[in-house]
Amino acid sequence: MGLENMINKISVKVKKLHPDAIIPYYAHDGDAGLDIFSNEDCIIKAGERKLISTGISMELPDGYVALVWDKSGLAGNNGLHCLAGVGDAGYRGEYKIVVFNTSKDDYYVKKGQKVSQILIQPIMAAEIEEVKELSETKRGDGGFGSTGLIKNSQV
Which helix (H) or strand (E) is 117 found in, with range? Predict the structure, then answer.
């Protein structure tokens, strides 16, 4: 069975808000994330967060959401991390990407450069039910590290 038969597809409308904006696309067949591009040159100083223009807006079908994620290379090599990142189906404004520079070096973003990726996902809505007690589990209310924190002496 080919990859084409395994991936569900939906129609997403993209509008250029600036003539030189780049329409998002998948770099490879089967990729989960659409590459998103900067529509401006800017500097993200060390320790700074910056709102980066993409020059596009999108229309998602009802029941779907666009989730903004880091580009692995930018995160791993340059310390750039995307903050925020939920584009609801009813939103029609420009997609701007909030990027935080965790490194000690300034980072120069060039117009047309990949700055993030967006995954289009179906929404699962929760029906909230207030209760007085929750069911018991093995983990219970154990917090961070309760499933087996490695101690420094064990490393």
Answer: strand 114-122
Cβ density class 108-124: b for 16+ within 10 Å, e for less:
ebebebbbbbbebeeee
Location of structure tokens 């420009």: 94
Predicted pLDDT at 140: 81
Tokens 């709102």, located at residue: 51
- Assign a CATH topology to domain 16-124: Deoxyuridine 5'-Triphosphate Nucleotidohydrolase; Chain A (2.70.40)
Helix (H, G, I), strand (E, B) or coil at 22: coil
The residues near 82 (Cβ < 8 Å, ≥ 6 apart) are 68, 69, 70, 97, 98, 99, 100, 116
For tokens 């935080």, what's the residue?
A: 100
Both tokens of 88, joined, read 């609801």
| Cα–Cα nearest to 36, from 121, 93, 120, 113 | 113
pLDDT of residue 121: 96
Instruction: Tell me the whole-structure pTM to 2 decimals.
Output: 0.83
Per-residue confidence (pLDDT) for residue 112, from 0 to 100: 98
What values do phi and psi take at 104, rounded to 5? -95, 5
Point out the residues of the chain with pLDDT beneath 50. Answer: 155
